[in-house]
Amino acid sequence: MKKVAQMRQVVQQWKESGLTQKAYCEKIGVKRTTFANWVARSRENAGVGFIAVKPQVKPISESIEVIYPNGVRLKINASHIPVLSELIRLA
Description:
Oligomer: single chain
Order of helices and strands: HHHEEH
Strand content: 5-15%
Number of strands: 2
């Protein structure tokens, strides 16, 4: 087992033990400062990774059309309002 995996396993066992860090360190024979470092490192790495997110947005089928005074027409799906906003700013 890799050292990092062992560290995480020891920290998880401590959490499940209900003991204080000091008592747990005495029980397993690890210096308190070393163990505190392991706990901090396990917290830093707890949120590493990606979670798939699927938007809960229903597609809009309506179209929006903008007609400029010079005759230029922009027709865009209403679900692309941010794109339309950018196009209007560019004109």
